[in-house]
Structure formats: structure tokens, C-alpha cells
Amino acid sequence: KREFDFTKCCYRYIALKIAYFGWNYQGFAEQTQDKNVNTIEGHLFEVLKSLKLIQDRKTCHYSLCGRTDKGVSAFSQIVGLYVRSSLKNDPKKGIYTTENEMDYVSMLNRMLPIDIRVLAWSPIKSSFHARYNCSYRKYNYFFTKQDLDIELMQKACKKLEGLHDFRNFCKIDPTKHNKFERTIYSYISPYNPFDIYVFEIKSMAFLWHQVRCCMAILFLIGKHKENIDIIDKLFDVNDENDQGKPIYDLAPEIPLVLVDAGYPE
């Protein structure tokens, strides 16, 4: 069988906007040490290589907006990479030319699992990086009213806003030197008439499990199992009487969705 000659191809740098239901996957990021782990990124690269759009991960200058954990979904995951192009490398046409280009969206969606969809693609400058150029990330966490005190949860939400040290609102990786200060914007609002609410949280970057930790505390407050002042105590990392980070269960991952990622024009 004759091998595909990538040296004879033209390439262009593009961004892909991807949506997926993460319920059946072990997270977004491909597990390089175990190819049998079912991940969104693993399926994406398998299809990209099958279509001969890229030769391999190393040579396509791949970048990613942000990893989502096991079970977490996304409506706006952004990746950047060099792909094979049907256009000649003509400087006069500029990097934004899309006329007569391959239909990357249809090509990829024909081969990807039904719960992973490429929504759009766009030409990008060579300086673009999906992670470092991202100006904000926005997550939604959906939940039903049940017996929750929504008004109290909304008040607690306001305490989360602004610049704070979130070390007590995340899972700490001891192998990394983390900076825990983050500026966030958040609120809780009705999502539809069926007693469904959404916790919306927006920041330039998030700590590991930060959203689910915040939601776990809000659930405890909403059930009157914790006082609203618990948030102030968790933020006060210099308290001499601090007994350390309290142990509480993470909020379930299934209702969490990465809904938006912002980039400069």
C-alpha cells in the first residue's frame, strides 16, 4: 500500500469549535500512556489522522482551550492546529480565505461519534494559542430546585464573586506549584419553567475541580447544612484558628458544561 506523502501538501492554521456530551468519556484529554482510555481528544486525533488532515500530534502545533474532566460536557471547546488544505499557499489570498477549501466540519462529523460534533472552523493567525489567548471561560451547572433555598444560594453566589484565594474551593495537586487567586463572576438564575436552575460562573482560568467545589458548598448552604458565612471562612486562608480545608463531596460532574470561551477579535 502506497503511503500518503504529507510533504507534497499545503497546510493552514485553523481553530475548531467542538461540542460534546462527556458522559460516556474519561475526560477530554487523550491518555498518552493508555490508548485504550475512551476520551474525546483520542477520537478527534484518530479521525484527523484517518482523513490525512494531520500527520501526527507533534507536527500539527496543537493547542487546546482547556481540559474537561470525566463526565463533563462542552458546547464551546476550542482547539487550534495545522491541517491539510486544498488551497495553494498564495500570500495574495491571505490567511482568511475560505473559498474552495475543504469542508472540514462535514468531513470530521461523518467519522466522529454522534456525541462529539465539530460546530465550526475558522482560519487563525500563526500566533494564536487556544489556551493562552483565551480571555475567559464560562461554565454552567444545571440543577433542579428540590428542597433548596434558592434565594440563599443566590446570596452566597455573590460572595464568590471577585478576586479571592480559592485554595479551599478546589482539588490541590501536590506535584504542582499553584497560584490560587482567581477573579470570577457568578450567579444563579432560572433556566426554564420546570424548576431547573443554572449556576453560571465565568473566569479567565479555573483551578482543578473549582466549579464543582463551589457548587458543592452552594448545595450545602441551600440545604441549610452550612451557614452562608462558611464562604468567608474558607476564603480566610490566614486565619490562625483555621483547621484546614474541610472535607466535603464534590458536586456530580454530569450537569457541568463548558458553554463558552472568549477570544480577542
Can you offer a commentary on this structure?
- This protein has helices at residues 40-50, 104-111, 150-160, 210-222, 230-235; strands at 10-20, 63-64, 73-85, 116-123, 136-144, 162-165, 181-192, 196-203, 256-262.
- The chain has 5 helices and 9 strands; from the N terminus they run E-H-E-E-H-E-E-H-E-E-E-H-H-E.
- The longest helix is centred in the C-terminal third of the chain and has 13 residues, at 210-222.
- Helices cover 18% and strands 28% of the residues.
- It folds into 2 domains: 6-123, Alpha-Beta Plaits; 136-262, Pseudouridine synthase I, catalytic domain, C-terminal subdomain (Alpha-Beta Plaits).
- Strands 1, 2, 3, 4, 5, 6, 7, 8 and 9 form a 9-stranded mixed sheet that branches.
Q: How many helical stretches?
A: 5
Stretches where pLDDT is under 50 for at least 5 consecutive residues are none
What would you call the structural class? alpha+beta
CATH homologous superfamily identity of the largest domain: Pseudouridine synthase I, catalytic domain, C-terminal subdomain
Based on CA inertia axes, which overall geometry fits?
elongated
**What proportion of the residues is helical, as a percent range?**
10-25%
CATH uppermost class of the largest domain: Alpha Beta
H/E element order? EHEEHEEHEEEHHE
Strand content bin: 25-35%
Compute the gyration radius: what is it? Answer: 21 Å
Rounded to the nearest angstrom, the distance between the terminal CA atoms is: 45 Å
Give the rounded overall mean pLDDT. 90
Q: What is the β-strand count?
A: 9
* Shape-level CATH architecture of the largest domain: 2-Layer Sandwich
Structural domain tally: 2
* CATH fold-level name of the largest domain: Alpha-Beta Plaits
Question: What's the oligomerization state?
Answer: single chain
Largest sheet: 9 strands, mixed
